[in-house]
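Entry 12.
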Amino acid sequence: MTTTSLQVLDAEFERAERLRAAWQLDAAEDAYRALLSDATLRPRLLTEIAVTLAHQGRGGEALAAIAEAELLAPQDATIAQNRLILEKLREPEDPALFLDLHAHYGTRFVPTRAELFKQVPRRADGPLRVAYLGVDAHTALARFVPMLATHHDRSRWHAAFFYGASDAAAIADARQRYPQVAHVSISDIAPRDLAIALARCGVDVAVDLVGHCHGFVLDSLAYRPAPLQITWLDYVATTGVAAINARICDRWTDPPDSRSWCVEQPLRLDVPQWCATPPPRLAMRRTSAGNSRVLGIVNATNKASPRLYALAARVLDQVPGSRLRVIGIAGERARHVALAALPAALHERVELIDRVGEAAYHTLVGGIDVALDPLVFSGATTTLDCLHAGLPVITRPGTLPHTRSSLAILAHLGLDELIAHSDDDFVTGAVDLLRNDAHRHALSARLPALVTHSSLTDPTRFMPLFEAALRDAYARTLQQ
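Predicted 3D structure (tokens):
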């Protein structure tokens, strides 16, 4: 292939990436597919197509595309990690397959990595040093990170935030807002070099915040730069990497009396594993939906699934005049997928809304009466936002931890009526709430205070429990 041909390919690939970044998903898919005739690029292209299909709500097709990519390039770590991420969209879930795939990925690190922390003298005393890796990897993390800066007990903890995506200006701004912690860019450092730096800095606890969403963190921690290494927050599932000692979870996502679906040791909190700053106060105002009852699907479109749409259709059937509002449908193919999952007779009662800005999103959520939690990948930040807005969220937890996030939130708040134990319960719960205006309004009025006065929003309640769990786990690690 000539240099000119390579330049053309690179330019077309970059164009496809720009289209997807702008949420022009149909055009992005076409641009990627137009390059598939190049055999050397095919595995990478299939991976990008799989990610695009997932954003369109085409989870089954996404899994097929990523499986083909992995067959063509079985040693490609990026493809393998995307396969793991997309496995969360499998419907129905397959817990054994999910665990096996992650454990198999983890074997990539076992023969070649050492325990770097043992090669550095440990400090005898002083505050524990905790490194939070990947604090900027996902927009939702911005809601969870502030408490880690402002509410650590600084007499017992020295915290540092590590950024993989932010530019110098953004990190400088973070230093001004949160001077209590150190701020470090790791965007241009190799995984092994990062691991060596963490070990030399005497990090006692390394916390992976992103899982397989950004591979450089797990690649670094595979060298064991810290005695205690934990995964938490964004991935909400096992990493499969043996060098990760523990996974922060809670007694709802990972019940102590059931099988553990992670290779790490479950580090269970007695409260839900989330504590987030609330959305802007103006965004929490509820608006009247008028005489029509509105059912909502408000999470990321990749979490919507055929089964969720089928259950939503059953609700609409039983509540005459009710409507379904789905937020975040980007492109005609995503619209087609959503409508194809619903009976044609209901299409005129379905409102498919494109991606919108945050303020418009919260306004749209304010016009919904009952929200349905995704079945394949439960919401956490979105569920908290809905509760702050007084919007009831009905969840139908599965077996794997990432299907049980809303369960933890709702159970902790004593909202058992919003937790379904079967598909029929899920439908019945939504139908009953939509039909009973008085009860729904009373429940809606209670929700903001419930979530505000809990560990889900109040770091003074959450952080002491979180720190105690880390200290106990650290002490146990040193005794091993």
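Annotation: The first strand starts at residue 128 and ends at 133. The first helix runs from residue 3 to 21.
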